Fold this sequence. Notes:
The complex is a heterodimer of chains A (94) and B (416). By secondary structure, chain A is an alpha+beta fold. Chain A is 21% helix and 35% strand. A four-stranded antiparallel β-sheet of chain A has the order 3-4-5-6. A two-stranded antiparallel sheet of chain A has the order 1-2. In chain A, strand 5 and strand 6 (78-83) form a beta hairpin. The model of chain A has no long low-confidence stretch (mean pLDDT 96). Chain B has two domains: 5-78 and 182-251 and 343-415, FAD/NAD(P)-binding domain; 113-177 and 253-341, D-Amino Acid Oxidase, Chain A, domain 2. Chain B is an alpha/beta fold and 416 residues long. In chain B, the strands form three sheets. In chain B, strands 1, 2, 8, 9, 10, 11, 17 and 18 form an eight-stranded mixed β-sheet that branches. In chain B, strands 5-6-4-13-14-15-12-16 form an eight-stranded mixed β-sheet. A two-stranded antiparallel ribbon of chain B has the order 3-7. In chain B, helix 2 packs parallel to helix 7. At the A-B interface, strand 3 and helix 1 of A face strand 12 and strand 15 of B.
Amino acid sequence: MLIDHPLLGLRDSSEFIYMGDAKLLNRPNWKSKNSKTKFIDYGYLRKNPGGVHKELWYHEQGDRSWLVVTRNTVTHEILKVELARYLKRKENAK
Amino acid sequence: MKYSGIKVLWEGLRGNMGWKPLWRNPDPKKSYDIIIVGGGGHGLATAYYLAEKFKITNIAVVEKGWLGSGNIGRNTTIIRSNYLLPQNQPFYELSLKLWENLEQELNYNSMVSQRGVLNIFHSDNQRDAFVRRGNAMLMSGADASLLGVNDLKKMVPFLDFQNSRFPIKGGLWQPRGGTVRHDAVAWGYAKEADSRGVDIIENCEATNFLVKNGRCYGIETTKGVIKSKKVGVCVAGSSSQVMGKIGINLPIESHVLQAFVSEGLKPVIPGVITFGAGHFYVSQSNKGGLVFGGDIDGYNSYAQRGNLPVIEDVCEGGVALMPMVGRARLLRIWGGIMDMSMDGSPIIDKTNIKNLYFNGGWCYGGFKATPASGFCYAHLLATGTSHHDAKDFLFNRFEKGRLIDEKGQGNQPNLH
Lengths: 94, 416
């Protein structure tokens, strides 16, 4: 698979390390209500869809940025690649 | 149908006209005592042990495709019980004991061949870890012995003993491990379950569960509604897809694992051999092909096919361990979908919905577990309580912090 890195262009997926579902970007607040249940969900439970999946890839053999890749798990087609830090900044600015 | 030498002789004299299909092709009844979703190795084994040990025969096994079309037909056929943790090892030893008697029990030739499993180690530290593992195996009643370099040179002289990066220091040897003709496992269980009255319904996809007041009372399928007192899901590879239909998120990611077979060669590899410095395992089939595999690709996938970097990695591991395989040509490569769980161990448990049960999360170790998985799942479905050797394979181990993590990798499924 080739991942279209927003800064570096097409890179081979073997340069990356895979971290799974992009829900990991949204760590629950430990002070919130039911934080125990939320952390069990955060740590262990996954939707694991057959189809479009947002997931984290780390460019370890490259610029060491975290990417959010939108990919189809049935066809391996990559639909969208974004920098995780830009997504988080946008979210935090809201 | 009973197989015997006399039957073979008799049929040979009569032009082999008397052989019959091994199982019927029934339409689903309106209701059953138990429905098993998934007609693979584990599902068929569950149906067989329910009928044989618990005398429950009003059972349907529903299968989306044809019987045994999933991972029972896609694995590398290895059986062994060489685990470390006390929650795992007795379970896999139970499985190996069931394998040893499988052909007699099913009256079917599944070619159970106990030619031994050899785990190579390459350093003093790795030897110590394997000694510990060997002792854990012995304590569970399994067999294990430690072999030195001289033993290995007699047994497997073709290994690269003087490899400058990963010199071979010895191996952990389990003589009772080996290989089994994988498809014949599904066929054997299907034959015996069917002969006890179990309905095996192929080309019948479970599309939804019937749930009322938190109780499951049947399933919707492509062949209509089927009611049942209990429903057991057993669809490793598609677990999240099936359980997702009623909104249950599982501690599982689906990953693709590739397997490989070479052209047929003269007998050269005596048993199963695994590389200790990379991920590579190999055996030789009765047809002569080298059957081997390595790591999963490492990203969520339902594609049943993988990518080239892993193929390269597996072949590098093979050549590092036994340079002679560099000249063998690959015949086929295929992929299967694994339930990779968060701690690398399976789940055989009730769900939050009453009368709905779950068996899955086998990572890429499901084939060797087939008999014990069926046995313990049948125990759970029939009695409502976990079998002694599978009592730790529960959903709540994640929230309780009782993970069964053989490799100590944490909640990162692609590392198990």
